[in-house]
Amino acid sequence: MPRISWIGTTVLILASIPAGVFAETIPDQFVFGGSGIGLHGPFPGGIYIKQLLLTSAAGEIALDFYSAGFRDSLGNTLPSMESSGEMITGWCRTLCFHEFEYRAWIAFRVPDGGPYTSASLRLAEWRVAAYPGNTETVAFYDVGTPVPLLRGDEPVAGAFDDLGSGMLYGTQDLPAFVINGPNYASPVFTIPLNNAALAAINNARGDYFAMGTRLASVDLLAPEPNVFPAFAAVLAFCIGFRRHFAQIDRREAYRP
């Protein structure tokens, strides 16, 4: 019986690898990276702008954010990151060494007065890692989780789903952008909020109004499954297969 060559073994291995093993690994895909106050120091240029613009018969007011933070798909946040206002949203696999999706939230204290007739967000872009194109779309949703719970460091069950579902308040396309020194300047976007958001703001007068953020582009791209265990199993099978027939070859060679 002919010996099983290394070439034959290699062919067996390659033929057994599932489709997609050699597919491109999806890189970082997020918006609002590095958006926390204090992460880069007190640089000028409005880099940390997080404002809610409200219009009423008395004119327009600009409310600075009360609190902001993020949660991963397990409901976790990084300790003390809420106090910085970090709002990273999406997938940060390479830069953050984290395989879970992030969703963020931002809250404001709405003053008495009004009624308010229009509302919009004014946000600096910070860092946007776009894949596969040059823009990412972020969506803003209503939030049912109480703000004091979101502000804590402990995991909050259901918070991740809450931040990216429910009533849609608005969307915004953000181009790819990387913050660079020495001024760390960032584009600033004014994002109109819809009538559902305006109604929620008027209902929240004298209290908190919060919104969740979710990377809408994530619907189109999911991370590749971890195929290494399957590949290792196929490799082990093929090596065992070759050794088995090699032993048969040796017995045939010594047979009188």
Walk me through the structure.
This protein is of the alpha+beta class and 256 residues long. The chain folds into two domains: 6-20 and 226-254; 29-219, no CATH class. Helix content is 24%, strand content 29%. The chain has six helices and twelve strands. The protein has a five-stranded antiparallel β-sheet with strand order 4-6-12-9-10. A four-stranded antiparallel β-sheet has the order 3-2-7-11, with helices on one face. The chain has a three-stranded antiparallel β-sheet with strand order 5-1-8, with no helix packed on it. Strand 2 and strand 3 (59-64) form a beta hairpin. The longest helix has 27 residues, at 228-254. The protein starts with 5 loop residues before the first helix and ends with a helix. Residues 19-24, 38-46 and 219-235 have low confidence and may be disordered.
List the helices and strands and how they pair.
Blueprint: H1 6-16, E1 29-33, E2 50-56, E3 59-64, E4 67-72, E5 89-91, H2 93-96, E6 102-109, E7 118-124, E8 127-129, E9 135-142, H3 147-151, H4 159-163, E10 168-175, E11 188-192, H5 195-203, E12 208-215, H6 228-254
Antiparallel strand pairs: 1-5, 1-8, 2-3, 2-7, 4-6, 6-12, 7-11, 9-10, 9-12
The oligomerization state is: single chain
Distance from N terminus to C terminus (CA atoms, Å) equals 15 Å
Poorly predicted runs: 19-24, 38-46, 219-235
| Number of individual domains | 2
Count of DSSP E strands? Answer: 12
Shape: globular
H-E order: HEEEEEHEEEEHHEEHEH
Specify Rg, calculated over alpha carbons: 26 Å
